[in-house]
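Hey, resending since the last one bounced:
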Amino acid sequence: MNNKQFWKNIWDKKGSDDNFDLLYLDGYEHLKIDFSSKEICKKIISLANIQPSDSILEVACGAGFLARELQSYSYVGVDYSSSLIKKHKILFPDHLVSVGEANKLNYDDESHDVVFCFGLFQYLPDREYAEQVIYEMTRVAKKGIFLGDLKTKKTRDEHFVYPASLLEEKGFIISQCVYDANDVERFNAFREKEGL
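The structure tokens again:
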């Protein structure tokens, strides 16, 4: 089984469980720190310069752990797990969410002001797929893209690591982990569309 299918099986299984805990559904239940969706979203909004009138696309939105904090925005989400999208729709029936692949976004060019993902990159299968994801996120963004919670090294054999230095070469601004300032093994990257 390849890495992509390995992770998809995990997410589909979580979405098929009877559990509606968002930390569990979106894969954060193992963290031993205060993991506040409200605080994380405040920092993403600041780092990505998201304005109240902006439209937002979240790639790998899962069941809505972060989306619940973005309900005052024009929000759209996409995830490749149909069971997690089903849970998302039950928990947040007003959200516009759909099933789709991160490397083949079913949205028009520049259809959203800001496109972001959080905790996605470590689950990507390889560098080629990651490049496609960056391309697609950039294509559908008007103002910029934000890649959140990337790892500097693998903590499981199945994880993927995209080096911060390569993102910097592509014009991304690197910032520290948004939920634990002491965590130097995670980072975020933001790039404005004008700089592309």
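Residues 3-16 form the longest helix (14 residues).

Sorry for the duplicate.
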